[in-house]
Amino acid sequence: MKLLNASQIREWDQYTIQDEPISSIDLMERAARACRDWIRRQFPTHSFDIFCCTGNNGGDGLAIARLLMLMRIPVKVFIVNAAGKASRDFTTNLERLKAIPGANIIELTSGTFPPPPDPSAIIIDALLGTGINRPIEGFTGEIVSFINAQSNKVIAIDMPSGLQSDTYSGTTPIIQANHTLTFQIFKLGLLMPCNAGHFGQVHVLDIGLAPAYLTTVESKYELTEKTLFASFYKTRENYAHKGNFGHALIIAGSYGKMGAAVLSTKACLRSGAGLVTAHVPGKGVNIIQTSAPEAMCQTDPDGEMITTIQYPLKSYSAIGIGPGTGTHPSTQKLLQHIFNSYSQPLVLDADALNILSENKPWLNLLPENSIITPHPKEFSRLFGEQSNDFERIETALEQASHLKIIIILKGHRTFIATPAGKGYFNTTGNAGMATGGSGDVLTGLITGLLAQGYTAAEAAIMGVYLHGLAGDKAAAVYGMEAMIAGDLVKKLRFPAFE
Ligand SMILES: NC(=O)C1=CN([C@@H]2O[C@H](COP(=O)(O)OP(=O)(O)OC[C@H]3O[C@@H](n4cnc5c(N)ncnc54)[C@H](OP(=O)(O)O)[C@@H]3O)[C@@H](O)[C@H]2O)[C@@H](O)CC1
Ligand SMILES: [K+]
């Protein structure tokens, strides 16, 4: 699914109005019904204090108030008209609400604050949505601070008021919601970790905008969902043999860190690669052969770390390097040798990234379409400090196209930047995956996908998606606290496609 900016969403809104056709007030009603249904399902016994400014987000709030009142749910509406003007659909919905007997509508003027809400009431934030074009200030800002000071749960409609959908919002007044009910599609701002304290849990509500619009519009950002995965998944043919699925080499491990080599080798085996070889320190041979007997093993002449490769690399269709290798100068030298002698894409993680950050010119030696998998700290060490998440993804895109590599920026919504200038946000995974060894599993998995002939971008997108899916399956069995990286390997499954 493409991600759209606020002006594209406005265009989509207008496209639907003309294409369906539907009037804008009826579209607002459809959005309000979707909110009402969600709210009723989640909070069936609560009362609601609804705060509205006078644009279309406020219009949504008024329509939700009416729909809840018609179900005999207690509702108070507070209107903040700092602008001294109102949108047409807001005005229509205000008339409709006033026509309901007992409607409790309070207009707040500068300096007057509402009474503290009933402790069990839910606050609905319908002050401002995607129409925001400047920081909130003045009386509207004071109302935002008033809402944030309450201990009541807050549901934001479309966007938490004050939060920019496409850019960094800074430290201006912004609603801190527990839930955000956003219309039709994720907004960029709802994917950024720095905004997590504002959007809480995000729920995308289908309001029936015309799907045809999406084919007409360009976007550099996309969400990775099952449909995208399905678009490049290659069915395993009945008459295939192991030679059809590549030979992956995992260079990993050092004394005390052989677990990283085991995890990435096992994940590589589960990726569907035809053959997997693990290159490990001499003393690691028994560990790897016992825990991953399906893999072959090459041993380093050094017993405790990776120093030398004495066989040709070109017979391997993909190489993954870094899990648990350490950063000893001999390991660094080997890495430089590989960069200079292997021309196919590499997958680099963990200590390979630490080595790169100490030898930044080597970034230019990376074979085209190599994949690096930094978390935000490793990313800063490689590419400098970024002041916020928006800047970080922009830098990732710039560096991916400059270096002609894929950058997988790991996080809750892992971001994949491709050399073609496209950025993908992953939709699978959970906080239980923030545990040692999780990244080693990802490295092995992506290396195995590359070995099978998937392009680097495909392998990155699929690997991150499958890794998160395995995490979700592991969390369902063990819970987020108890799951460990080995569970990710056990739970790796390719989704079934019809
Ligand atoms: N997309 C869809 O399909 C559907 C969308 N719908 C809903 O419409 C919402 C977007 O509506 P919207 O454009 O009226 O914007 P909204 O956020 O209410 O702002 C209103 C006005 O406020 C102003 N303003 C800006 N910044 C400000 C600030 N900091 N402090 C104070 N004022 C500020 C600015 O006007 P200005 O002052 O610049 O003239 C702006 O025009 C969307 O989020 C969703 O809830 C649904 O109803 C149906 C389907
Ligand atoms: K809002």
From TrEMBL:
Binding site for K(+): 57, 125, 161
YjeF N-terminal domain location: 9-215
Cofactor note: Binds 1 potassium ion per subunit.
Catalytic activity: (6S)-NADPHX + ADP = AMP + phosphate + NADPH + H(+); (6S)-NADHX + ADP = AMP + phosphate + NADH + H(+); (6R)-NADPHX = (6S)-NADPHX; (6R)-NADHX = (6S)-NADHX
Enzyme Commission number(s): 4.2.1.136, 5.1.99.6
Names of the cofactor(s): K(+); Mg(2+)
Binding site for (6S)-NADPHX: 56-60, 129-135, 158, 260, 324, 375, 440
Binding site for AMP: 410-414, 439
Xref: InterPro entries: Carbohydrate_kinase_pred_CS, CARKD, Nnr, Ribokinase-like, YjeF_N_dom, YjeF_N_dom_sf
Residue ranges annotated for the YjeF C-terminal domain, each copy included: 225-498
SUPFAM superfamilies listed in its UniProt record: Ribokinase-like, YjeF N-terminal domain-like
Entry similarity comment: In the N-terminal section; belongs to the NnrE/AIBP family.
PANTHER family reported in the protein's UniProt record: ATP-DEPENDENT (S)-NAD(P)H-HYDRATE DEHYDRATASE, ATP-DEPENDENT (S)-NAD(P)H-HYDRATE DEHYDRATASE FAMILY MEMBER
Subunit structure: Homotetramer.
Name listed for the protein in its UniProt record: Bifunctional NAD(P)H-hydrate repair enzyme
Protein species of origin: Niabella yanshanensis
Lineage start: Bacteria, Pseudomonadati, Bacteroidota, Chitinophagia, Chitinophagales
